[in-house]
Amino acid sequence: MTGKNVTLRLLDKADREILKLPRPVKGAIYDFQHKFKTNPDSAGLRLKQLQGHDKLHSARVNDEYRALLLRLADDDWLIVSVKHRKDVYAHLDRLTYSVNRVTGGIEYVDLQVVQEEVLAPSPAPEPAAPQPLFAAWSEQQLTDLGVAPSLVPVVAALTTEDQLLGLVEYAPQLTGEVLLALYDGKAYDDVLEQVTAPVAVPDPVDPEDYRAAADRPATIVTTTDDALREALEGEDFGRWKVFLHPTQAKLVTRDYSGPARVGGGPGTGKTIVALHRVRHLVERLPAGRTKPVLLTTYNKNLAADLRSRLLALGGEALLSRVEISHVDQLALRTVREAEPGNRKRIVDEAQAVREWRSLLDELGEDGWDAEFLHDEWTQVILGQAVTSRTDYFRARRAGRGRTVSRAERAEIWQLAERFAQRLDRLGVQTWDQIAERAAQLEAGRARRIQDIERRREEAGGLDNVHVADGSGGWLRYRYRHIVVDEAQDLRPAHWKMLRAMTAPDRNDLFLVGDTHQRIYKNQVTLGSLGINIRGRASKLSLSYRTTRQILRSALNVLGEETYDDLDGSAETLAGYRSVLSGAVPNLHRLADWPDEREAIAALIESWGRCRTSRSPSPCRPTTWRARWRTRCGSTASWRWRSVRTGPRRQRRAHRHDVPVQGARVPAHDHRRGDRRAGAARGRPAAARHGPGALPHGDAARPVPAVRGGHARTGQPRRLLARGAEPVPEGADRGTAAGRGVIRSAAGSG
Ligand SMILES: Nc1ncnc2c1ncn2[C@@H]1O[C@H](COP(=O)(O)OP(=O)(O)OP(=O)(O)O)[C@@H](O)[C@H]1O
Questions:
Q1: Cβ atoms within 10 Å, residue 664
Q2: What is the tally of structural domains in the chain?
Q3: Partners of 578 in beta bridges
Q4: 377 and 328, same structural domain?
Q5: Where does the record place the region Disordered (predicted)?
Q6: Of 275, 348, 455, 618, which residue is least crowded by CB atoms under 10 Å?
Q7: Is 698 helix (H, G, I), strand (E, B) or coil?
């Protein structure tokens, strides 16, 4: 057999194994895959079928290591594991693989490893007859949820959380997610609906068709080059580039009949999906030098971050087909292109509010609040392109939080007119005005395009009705596809502009965002802005950034506030979960906002000291402030270390008094240098240390934080849950303790 058409893929679990191997072995694997693709039958590879298995083969990586491969079809191979030679042949009957009947994905499990690493090393003698953790569910129920059948007996034997966490590390993705969701108290039906259903295949699965199984999103797999390069670089920060969760993969590749929206809690990979979606769309473009895909977001820093991540994902070739711009920049460019004479100075929101105040002072008007008027002007009047008093009387004010009478509307209208005149006189303009103007210009351009198309159709498709636009080029839509990140923070005018920039067509607009994280007060109903996402909205719910413990606390603090789905309905975080484990956060009672700010600053400062400290004794703090300000001991032994989830690693971390933060921090999370903060979000420092994770001792524990703004009031939330009692571990949101926290946090907003 020659290797011309050999396909070699890598299962994500095998990639994780490779990451842990010594560097020279990784190098040998890299060479191996090249040789294998050239000719799997070359003598040096010693490819052979393993005894008792019809699909499983081994091949030589180097003298010591062997790759285990499933033969999917004649020239199609899947690396499922890379092991030391001595571990391969001893327990061949313990190597299992199958096609999961629920997801249709290929699953590989080494039962011997599970036995040795998960069940055997029980840390301490258990009390007599410990209760199995999953006794409440039958084998059938577990397999219906998608648990790998070969692991069902192992699951039945689990009696401790350590064992469960250990198993999750080795188990196929869905098995881990299902077991943790059940263990964390989710109802069976909820797990079925929120965890299993999104990755289940609708059609019956042929368990013998491995070739078809390898192509399903549930087989988290890549062709090896990219993944191995990441692995050889010694980090797994790049995993997002090659291994998508099945739910993510489906969203990336789906063919949508119109605009689509992906929601989901913080850290669920929405941006990752947006980036992969961009690549997917670009791969389907005809060859060319233009940039028919727009990737946009709401500010400059995020746009710069998107650029660097897209570069990491697809290199210059991908970047060369994508326009990356933040929406305000896009709007400004549009306005300047159409009105080159418009050189008004741009004032930011704070300056605009100051102008409102000056206007009210000059008029001796004290019945109105400057901020309220500014919001009304930007969100309702500019936001809906209201051009007359009569239209303003009819304008929708959804999300404005307070009703205004007809007489009040008349007053507001008059003030808004005066305000616009004032800005004009001063020779300044706001970003909202620019966005609104850009939306009008683009809508006009879209109407002209549609007009040309209509006339072309009437002329029997003849191409004689081209009309040059102002710049002398052919008039056409600016982009073929538009992808928007952090969609929750765009203004109505932005949406109108974007809508007009691409033809209403398949896969025209793809938006990702989470209204729980909205920081501006731009509540929109996309349907009313010409963007119909009905039937094309989906949600991601597995957090890659936050531990289960932090997530549970953060959800408690979120409380009973309601959030919109960008389209007039409610959005929830139902199903939001994590498979990462870490320390249990503590809530701290704080008197007021200044105290809270000070506490946060002290906490962050203490992290900095801890990382550089050389003093020997552990801290013995007395008050919370002292605790957070405490000088770390001199041992230099305290150093935050990225600790992987797993019982043994947790024990090792505890020896150093390090609060275990299971979540490893993705390299790219430094992008949130803007106004965002909080546990659920995960800033670099916060994520590295765990939001609120403190360096020493039980007294110093993580403090969950919340972020975003109240949907109705738009007020920023308090970072720490203050005036709140700690929520007892396992307390339900409905319990008195849980409600206490919720009320307190919501009330503080
Ligand atoms: N499939 C994946 N494999 C590995 N890591 C992933 C995957 N998907 C997401 N991540 C990691 O999770 C982190 C969060 O991803 P991302 O920024 O896309 O989340 P998000 O939902 O957009 O977050 P936010 O709501 O805060 O904007 C990233 O650092 C990324 O590396």
A1: 18
A2: 4
A3: 543
A4: no
A5: 642-749
A6: 348
A7: coil
Quick one: which of 419, 422, 430, 424 has its CA closest to 350? 430
Record the pTM: 0.77
Query: CA-CA-CA-CA torsion for 617, 622, 627, 632, nearest 10 degrees?
Result: -10
User: Six-digit token pair at 649?
Assistant: 């690693």
ipTM value = 0.98
Question: Is residue 431 domain-resident?
Answer: no
Distance 266 CA to ligand 1 centre (A): 8
Range with top average pLDDT, 503-517, 560-574, 648-662: 503-517
The minimum-distance atom of ligand 1 relative to the CA of 512 is: 22
Query: pLDDT by residue (tens digit) across 64-108?
Result: 999 999 999 989 999 999 999 988 888 899 999 999 999 999 999
Dist. CA 408 → ligand 1 center (Å):
45
- The residue from 368, 399, 426 where one domain ends is 426
Ligand 1: does its nearest atom lie under 6 Å from the Cβ of 110?
no
| 202 in the same domain as 84 | yes
C-alpha dist (Å) from residue 723 to 590, 645, 653, 680, 718: 6, 32, 31, 20, 11
Strand partners, 735: none
Residue with token string 């199958």: 98
Q: Which residue has the higher pLDDT, 412 or 463?
A: 412
Backbone dihedral angles phi then psi of residue 81, each to the nearest 5 degrees: -165, 155
Question: Does 36 share its domain with 58?
Answer: yes
Max CA distance (Å), the chain: 92
